[in-house]
Amino acid sequence: MGHEQSSAELMSAYLDAELDAAEAEAFESFLAESPDARAELEDLRRVMTLVSALPHVEAPEDFYEKLSRKMRRKQLLAPEGALMGLVSLPFQVLSIVVILTVAALYMMAQLEQAPRGIEAAGQSADEIDEDPDIDR
């Protein structure tokens, strides 16, 4: 894969006439021996021709400012961003504490109402009739 990348870089440099004479000659020898490399070079040449034929487009005056602002905003709001960690962690902890508190209060309220029923469940029907503490 590193060879393919260096080959693509060489092709780009060759097409841009950035190779010195010895490098260009060595690359042309490589092309003469490799039909695949020649085909790839021709594909790259066609792409470069198509791209150069595209009309020149000017970015709006505030393009870079807006882009910079959006990038900063995404960095701040990204999950790995420090701000998101600082904001979300307290809310998560607070949510867990609230849920546990509500659950504990509910269980305590249920236990306060249930003892008579629990005690009564362990007694026979005759004992319940005789027990003056049980409200009916």
Overall tally of domains: 2
Total number of beta strands: 0
Shape: elongated
Count of helical stretches: 7
pLDDT averaged residue by residue: 77
Taking the sheet with the most strands, its summary is: none
String of helices and strands: HHHHHHH
Q: What is the rounded Rg?
A: 39 Å
Low-confidence stretches: none
Note the gap between the termini: 85 Å
- State the secondary-structure class: mainly alpha
> Percent of residues in beta strands?
under 5%
Helical content band: over 70%
Which terms summarize this structure?
78% helix
Topology:
Layout: H1 2-15, H2 21-33, H3 35-53, H4 63-77, H5 82-113, H6 115-121, H7 125-130
Helix pairs in contact: 1-3, 2-3
Give a brief description.
The chain has 136 residues and is mainly α.
Describe the structure.
The chain has seven helices and no strands. It is mostly helical.
